[in-house]
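Hi C.,

You asked whether I'd gotten around to modeling the 162-residue construct. I have! Everything is below, sequence then structure, no commentary in between.
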Amino acid sequence: MKVYAILLFITIETFGLCQKEFFKDRSIDIEFGVNIGAKNTSIEIGFNLFKEFTELSGHLYSSDALLLSSELIYLNNNLVLIPKISYSYNMIFLNFSGSLVNYNYNKLNEFYFRPAIGITLFGYADIVYGYNIPIHHSLEFVNTHTITLRGRLFGIFKNRVF
């Protein structure tokens, strides 16, 4: 058991050192994912902006980011584009995020706030549970509870500033 704990510690510390070097000159990442709910499933694609890393306990990092993305839902033979702005905070294996989502379909328009919590692999991939809270009134096609699986393509825009 001690051997596994030592190997896990070495792996996490090594990953933290590599992460510091890899992320130092990056500006924008592409984010993609899938949102699964009882009423529908959507895909999501966007950009991870303004990512900042903070050193924790020597080598491990926390990170936060502003995300601009869109969810795409196929609803009643129509492709619906749903813009979203999010703030995400990752700390080692935990992810906390909040999103403002603009659901608009068939002349209906409603904003939802979606807090989410879940697990992350150092910000590379997340599995989170979110709860949609309507700002004014709810729309029938919006999932109340969502499970989101998402990943990021780091380094796509490495050494570029936009």
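If it helps when you're writing up: Strands lie at 29-36, 41-56, 60-75, 78-91, 94-105, 108-120, 125-131, 133-134, 145-153.

Thanks,
B.
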